[in-house]
Write a structure and sequence with these properties.
Length: about 210
């Protein structure tokens, strides 16, 4: 049976998920995390892709991104995954797949579900029991978003993030409050296997 095509639309926000093959670890050391982030930063400088948030867990990755040209999301993910798999296999003396098939991507209605997705990404390490607060996790964009300082990679600022306040400080405080006021309501929503996360009108735009 042919695989269903992934929805990828330039100019729209996407929630991207990529997993380790057989759910095995993608990252075993600090240098592994650093290498993946270096590679995705290098690739997105070749193909126009905005990165709004991310988290690297031990065996999977979440990204909140916006491709600015047709095909740029696939090119960045393919470039990064191939280069990282080559690095990983060489370093650990192994062969075979590192990532589990193709990445998944979900179109996100920015004005309605952007923050639900971003908060879900930030809270992954907390939900996994790795840290008590997202600011204590080293491999996500959360600290960048609440301090305004560039960390592992340079994050872009979305329109809805900019709407949180007139100054950078106001936006940082507002975003931290938004994440820390989490009540668990969006987890089930984001775990649904739907290609589009939005209201009825938004989903209608992308029906075949």
């Amino acid at each position: 049976m042919p695989r269903a095509p992934r929805l990828q639309e330039a100019g729209y926000v996407h929630h991207v998920i990529s997993r380790g093959n057989d759910r095995q670890a993608l990252f075993k050391s600090t240098k592994d995390y650093q290498r993946y982030l270096f590679l995705i930063e290098e690739s997105r400088n070749k193909y126009p892709l905005k990165i709004y948030n991310y988290v690297l867990m031990d065996n999977h990755i979440h990204l909140l991104v916006e491709p600015k040209a047709d095909g740029s999301l696939s090119k960045v993910m393919e470039d990064t995954s191939k280069a990282y798999a080559k690095y990983f296999n060489k370093k650990y003396g192994r062969v075979g797949h590192v990532f589990q098939g193709r990445f998944k991507s979900f179109l996100v209605q920015q004005e309605r579900y952007f923050f639900a997705c971003s908060r879900y990404i930030d809270l992954n390490p907390v939900k996994a029991g790795l840290v008590s607060e997202p600011k204590d996790y080293s491999w996500s964009g959360y600290s960048d978003l609440i301090t305004g300082k560039s960390g592992n990679i340079k994050l872009d600022e979305s329109e809805v993030y900019l709407s949180l306040g007139k100054s950078g400080f106001e936006r940082q405080i507002a975003y931290r409050t938004l994440v820390m006021s989490y009540q668990g309501e969006e987890l089930d929503l984001l775990n649904k296997r739907a290609g589009v996360l939005g209201d009825k009108e938004f989903k209608q735009r992308f029906k075949n």
